[in-house]
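We include the entry.

. . .
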Amino acid sequence: MNKPLVSAVLAVALAGAALPAFAQSKGDWTLGFGVHQVNPKSDNGKLANGALALDIDSDVKPTVTFEYFLRDNLGLEVLAALPFKHDIEIKGLGRVGSTKHLPPTFTLQYHFNGQGKVSPFLGAGINYTTFFSEDTRGALAGSKLKLEDSWGLAAHAGLDFKVSERGAVRVDVRWMDIDSDVKLDGVKLGQAKIDPLVYGAAYVLKF
């Protein structure tokens, strides 16, 4: 985690000390600040009728979450982040381009042991991923690369470690179903199967 982000998390944590305590009850909400790493699965699909195997790398960026409790221990969470950037390789040809993406994700999740010092949670929802700023190089230099936006299911699991009446440190993991049609100069070549695991840590404020 970089120094500006650490400073921001600490500042929010200190500000939270002045807030009234609350239980994880209907009508409450939380705000989380952290970092997450998007790790695409090892087999990212093949293009050109199976002739070209894709390899998409990982990236780490700051994230923010907002969760509103619809009822006691049951919340609806939204995940947002700064754009993730991924290099794209074709096995045998090396790096051929890169893309950026934003993965807003909506998850309905249940928190167990909400009043305890350690509170696990599980959730499921939907992910929308939009790709932009694609570029090409190497074997694809001069061509126009496009990854189409994707809708898919998402799952979420984690632990909240209570550090005060208003704050918790969270560690979590997500899975997202991200499959994107790949086009080169307007011609569909195949599909990139990204389907990442997303690992993260955050400081969560409860209001």
